[in-house]
Design a protein that fits this description.
The complex is a heterodimer of chains A (831) and B (256). Chain A has 831 residues and is of the alpha+beta class. In chain A, 38% of the residues lie in helices and 22% in strands. Chain A has 31 helices and 30 strands. In chain A, the strands form six sheets. In chain A, strands 8-10-7-11-9-12-13 form a seven-stranded mixed beta sheet, with helices on both faces. The termini of chain A are far apart. Chain B has helices at residues 14-23, 66-76, 86-93, 150-158, 217-231, and strands spanning 2-7, 27-32, 43-46, 80-84, 100-102, 110-118, 134-141, 145-147, 162-167, 186-190, 196-199. In chain B, 21% of the residues lie in helices and 23% in strands. Chain B has 256 residues and is an alpha/beta fold. In chain B, the strands form two sheets. Chain B has a nine-stranded mixed beta sheet, with helices on both faces. A two-stranded antiparallel sheet of chain B has the order 5-8. Chain B has a single domain (2-236), classed as Class I glutamine amidotransferase (GATase) domain (Rossmann fold), CATH 3.40.50. Classes of the chains: A alpha+beta (831), B alpha/beta (256). The A-B interface holds A 181, 184, 188-191, 274-277, 279-280, 283, 367-368, 457-469, 471, 480, 482-484, 488, 494, 500, 614, 709-714 and B 9-10, 12-13, 15-16, 18-20, 48-50, 52-55, 108-115, 136, 138, 140, 142, 168-169, 176-177, 179, 202, 204-205, 210-212, 255-256.
């Protein structure tokens, strides 16, 4: 209380608000997206009316983007602990996980949806820049990037909704092209390989694209840097380019519904990225950290100078005092409000041990970077800002950072789910012959969400840093971590470590989310998202270490939309627990909603895993003629009344239906499959592994035949002959023992299971297509069955066709006819 | 052998070049762009990246850097200089190599493996490449379309200065094999004196099978062989300047 009174006195004595600053009215408060209750709480914290700048600070600090006020109760349900976690969720800018031998990885995913909707190129560049900064802020060297993108349809047909106009499609293409080139521009220049990603196209994202960027960095345990303003009396440095008016209050902008009007008005809220500057700042910061003179470091991301000063003081329990006149400024006559809320990019706040200021100057001069000593750490617990002779901000730092409001929103199951659950296949004609099946396969392969993303990743440098072991185009990317992946060591650490050479580590990563599943059943879809990511890792030979999530959701004030989010988080959390993939941090992006309505709930999840040995690295394409093709997992989930077709790509593309309960995701089954597959890979039996996801078994088989790329315009196509006619009855003899009704299985082959479309394109979960030497086939099948995984040899690798025999006939397609639509459809749409 | 790998502020393949040279058993160290001496370098690599951000034109600013003055002098005295990707761009901007690298014909950045045909073994950069061997090496550039006027092209051809060309898997110089629209499928060239070369592909990314190809090592092996020959006295180059030394060995490992 005394502090409050002191500051009150302080204000009444010295504070002279500039004449230009507007008076604080309820309208102004509302304009800052603060509710009357939130404003009242702010007044209570301050013990007085806030200044205009302070109002701006409360507005951004209590925006969803910075405070997670609507999502915190949900985020608490994620598993966040593991003995390997060195820095956990919510503690710092990014979580950190031990990978052995004193080495650790820092990673996180973050969204830049709204800025990308308004200005795709810059929105995407700054999305990459922000996440890369989050990683080197932790003291880690960023070594690879991944992204997850979603746009409205870029082709006129084959989507779930056919009513798209040419103008809308053109606009979707513009956004897609802009975002991809923005990511390429930033990542390529910075020098970080973009090694994996996913891209989906769906009407739901029209006008509100999703751009989620992930970055992973590497460091030694001792190099972990905290974003805490430690050490009373320590000087505070601002480094990086000057502050301008760009990106004013971007965090607040990101926390509103996107309307046409707001998009136009808010263009100024989009920042401009400069990857060259980021490269300099990153190298200089890593070099500075190696001197040991840094007490704390934090990037100026969302809410710029405000958030960085506040959070650093709050974390350390100290106060911080800065002078805005000392902040390098790019525009003339900037107000304190503007300086505090600017989101100019590539800036860092660094607290330096007193007496070692010269080292900052030396290193930042070497890199020709602006720096300025702008303040000092105090013991008051307050964030104090002076501008000229005026005191413009005096806020208890911990209170604003930690006492942000928390809302437990109302949740209500949406109406549409009734129809979704009632959906059956009766009105959906099955495929009747091989020609239809071939045609459907080609259409699915050409569907932009399934088609090869080479048009995208070819624009990203995915090989810089000499560490990319599995390039984009397989189930998961694999990078290796070698000595020069690590940041330079301080003399002290180098002496302690001795030989700087590290034994190489292999890290696999993937990002996934089937937004349609989540829309149709948020809980099952949430589970399926994590399961797919972990399945992709298992296919690459990796064991999950941890996950980072990006909840892309709509307006949480609407009970139906909040329900979607709550249920999907329940699914995600349960699955992360099951797969031992604790969440180390992430991002929430709410209010994803265009004039056409809310987006499908899209909780993207990136999972990172470790591969023990180079020999275990496995790719998705078939290798050699004569190899056996084995299906691990149940071919069709017979307990599912719509046989895995709910929410499937097949129903969307061939029948223009986006409905039906998505395939059930049983976590125990999934876990057994992943462990078994990993065991088989580690015993050296598996030559290729590809998971069945969008498009089901037929698409997985086709991709296994056509997805290897030797070089430009030089795919390696290798055929397969597959016989599924007897499979449904012969999935696994263990089934009867495990309580599944054998008679139902057999009858399925003749009745319901005989649906050709479900067999070929159903998306029953927990299935993987692997190949192995013909001689090993029996061993692989036996071992898998012993572990409780249904396994059956379904065919043989070889030839220049994909031939599939089923009970309803045989179909066959030359690989060149499958490869062309799959490989070229996005490029053709974008030409 | 000692390799100096230049480090402009936004070089980003500098570490990769150092890694490749060391992997193949030689010494490499980074040389900051503000340095004006090459020290005891036997050869210089101008690595890939974005030198000074390259917002103006790739390599347009780098040519003015202090270290590039030293590189020019080194090259003038016959020292071996290899420019990779951005390094190739810098060398053309600096006038050490003829022609220019312009925007790829489809205006997009391309990162992909390509096939390379070696046009002649007669250079310090190609002498060890097995005859007829098609190299599979990655590219990663947005401005790699080699361009020169007809006169320059004619001179390049007459002087046997075209070292590498984009080809298909069988070695044909087709248009589809050409990723960027480069004239004559040119991927890399050398100067008249044959001591300075540049190429758009990244051999340093293809020196280990773990990364998918080790074909790039042949280019480095060629350099090593050429340097060995020189220090062995055969066909050596006379060095007049005191700061250009070609034979001093430095066996101490350099910490990054």
């Amino acid at each position: 209380m005394s502090t409050l009174r002191n500051s009150l006195n302080f204000f009444s004595n010295f504070l002279i608000f500039p004449m230009t600053e507007p008076a604080i009215t309820p309208e102004l408060v509302a304009k800052h997206n603060l509710t009357p209750e939130e404003y009242a709480h702010a007044v209570e914290i301050l013990g007085r009316t806030p200044s205009y700048t302070e109002l701006g600070i409360f507005s951004v600090m209590w925006s969803e983007h910075c405070s997670y006020k609507n999502t915190r109760p949900l985020l608490k349900t994620f598993p966040t602990k593991s003995p390997k976690i060195l820095v956990g969720a919510g503690e710092e800018n990014a979580g950190i996980i031990d990978i052995g031998d004193g080495i650790a990885i820092a990673f996180k995913i973050e969204s830049h949806n709204h800025p990308s909707a308004v200005e795709p190129f810059q929105g995407a560049t700054t999305g990459v820049g922000g996440i890369v900064r989050d990683i080197f802020t932790m003291g880690a060297r960023p070594v690879c990037a991944v992204n997850s993108l979603r746009f409205g349809p870029i082709t006129a047909n084959g989507e779930s909704d056919l009513s798209n106009s040419k103008a809308e499609i053109a606009n979707n293409r513009r956004l897609f092209a802009g975002v991809v080139s923005g990511i390429a521009h930033y990542g390529n220049c910075f020098g970080i390989p973009t090694v994996a990603g996913e891209v989906y196209f769906d009407k739901t994202y029209q006008g509100n694209p999703l751009v989620n960027a992930f970055c992973l960095g590497v460091l030694r345990h001792e190099q972990i840097t905290r974003g805490a303003a430690k050490g009373v009396g320590n000087p505070v440095f601002y480094v990086g380019p000057a502050t301008g008016r760009d990106g004013l209050a971007g965090a607040a902008f990101a926390s509103q519904d996107l309307t046409e009007e707001s998009a136009e008005q808010q263009r100024g809220a989009v920042q401009v990225g400069d990857p060259f500057m980021e490269k300099l700042v990153c190298e200089a910061c890593l070099e500075l950290l190696a001197t040991g003179c840094v007490a704390g470091m934090q990037d100026m991301g969302a809410a710029g100078l405000t958030c960085s000063t506040c959070e650093m003081a709050a974390r350390a329990g100290t106060g911080i005092e800065i002078e805005l006149d000392k902040v390098p400024q790019r525009a003339p006559n900037m107000s304190s409000y503007e300086i505090m809320l600017s989101e100019s990019q590539e800036r860092m706040l660094i607290v330096v041990h007193k007496g070692r200021e010269e080292e900052v100057k030396r290193i930042f001069d070497k890199w020709d970077l602006p720096w300025s000593e702008i303040g000092i750490i105090t013991d008051t617990g307050h964030m104090v800002v002076r501008h000229g002779s005026k005191l413009v901000v005096d806020i208890p730092a911990r209170k604003i950072a930690d006492e942000s409001p928390v809302y437990h929103r109302d949740a209500q199951e949406p109406e549409y789910l009734k129809a979704v659950r009632a959906f059956r296949l009766d009105g959906t004609p099955d495929l009747t012959n091989g020609t239809d099946a071939t045609d459907a396969l080609k259409r699915l392969l050409a569907w932009p969400s399934i088609a090869s993303k080479n048009w995208v990743y070819r624009q990203y440098d995915h090989q810089v840093r000499d560490g990319s072991v599995v390039l984009p185009g397989s189930d998961a990317a694999v990078i290796r971590i070698k000595t020069d992946s690590l940041p330079v060591m301080s003399a002290e650490l180098a002496a302690k470590v001795g030989d700087p050479k590290v034994s190489e580590k292999l890290i696999a990563m993937t990002v996934d989310c089937n937004g349609v599943y989540v829309y149709l059943d948020p809980y099952e879809g949430g589970k399926a998202t994590v399961a797919e990511a972990c399945r992709n890792l298992a296919c690459s030979g990796a064991l999950p270490l941890g996950a980072t999530d990006n909840l892309n959701m709509a307006n949480p004030h609407k009970p139906e939309l909040f329900w979607q989010m709550r249920e999907s988080v329940r699914g995600l959390a349960e699955a992360c627990r099951a797969f031992n993939a604790p969440v180390t941090g992430g991002n929430c992006s709410l209010y994803n909603q265009s004039p056409a309505g809310p987006i499908d709930p899209t909780p993207t999840v990136a999972v990172v895993g470790v591969i023990e040995k180079l020999e275990h690295v496995t790719t998705q394409w078939f290798k050699d003629e004569g190899d056996a093709i084995i299906l691990l997992g149940e071919i069709v989930d017979q307990a599912d009344p719509i046989l895995g077709l709910g929410g499937s790509a097949y129903l969307q593309v061939i029948h223009s239906k986006k409905t039906g309960s998505p395939p059930r995701c049983d976590l125990e089954t999934a876990k057994t499959l992943h462990t078994t597959l990993l065991g088989l890979i580690q015993s050296g039996l598996v030559k290729s592994a590809h998971d069945c996801s969008d498009g089901g078994l037929a698409v997985a088989l086709a991709e296994s035949c056509i997805s290897q790329l030797i070089a430009r315009e030089t795919p390696r196509l290798i055929g397969a002959t597959v016989d599924l006619s007897a499979v449904a009855a012969d999935v696994s003899p263990l089934h009867s023992k495990s309580g599944i009704d054998q008679s139902r299985l057999t009858s399925a082959a003749t009745s319901q299971g005989a649906r050709l479309d479900a067999l070929l394109f159903g998306e029953t979960q927990s299935r993987v297509v692997i190949s192995c030497k013909a001689l090993d086939a029996l061993k692989v099948v036996e071992r898998a069955r012993l572990m409780g995984v249904p396994a059956v040899q379904i065919g043989k690798v070889g030839g220049d066709k994909l031939t599939v025999k089923t009970a309803s006939g045989e179909f066959s397609a030359p690989l060149t006819e499958l490869h062309d639509p799959w490989w070229n459809s996005i490029a053709r749409a974008m030409a | 052998m000692n390799f100096s790998v230049l480090q402009f502020p936004a070089s980003n393949c500098d570490q990769d070049a150092v890694h490749a040279v060391r992997l193949l058993g030689h010494n490499a160290r980074l040389l900051w762009h503000k340095e004006n001496s090459l020290g005891d370098a036997d050869a210089v690599i101008v690595p890939g990246g974005f030198s000074y951000g390259d917002y103006l034109r790739c390599g347009a600013i780098a040519r003015f850097s202090p270290v590039m003055q030293a590189v020019k002098q080194f090259a003038d005295h016959g020292g071996l200089v290899l420019g990779i990707c951005n390094g190739f761009q810098v060398l053309t901007e600096a006038g050490l190599l003829p022609g220019a690298l312009i925007r790829n014909r489809d205006l997009q950045f391309h990162c992909e493996n390509i096939f390379l045909k070696t046009a002649t073994p007669d250079s310090p950069f190609t002498n060890k490449i097995p005859a007829g061997k098609i190299l599979r090496v990655p590219i990663a550039h947005g401005e790699g379309c080699y361009f020169a006027d007809e006169e320059t092209l004619a001179k390049l051809k007459a002087g046997n200065q075209i070292l590498w060309q984009y080809c298909d898997a069988s070695g044909n110089l087709t248009d589809t094999a050409n990723p960027n629209g480069a004239l004559q499928n040119i991927a890399g060239i050398c100067n008249e004196r044959r001591n300075v070369a540049g190429l758009m592909p990244h051999p340093e990314r293809a020196c280990e099978l773990a990364l998918g190809s080790d074909d790039g090592k042949w280019i480095f092996e060629s350099l090593f062989a050429a340097l060995e020959n020189r220090t062995g006295g055969a066909g050596g180059v006379v060095h007049g300047e005191p700061d250009v030394k070609v034979s001093r060995r430095n066996t101490s490992p350099l910490r990054m």
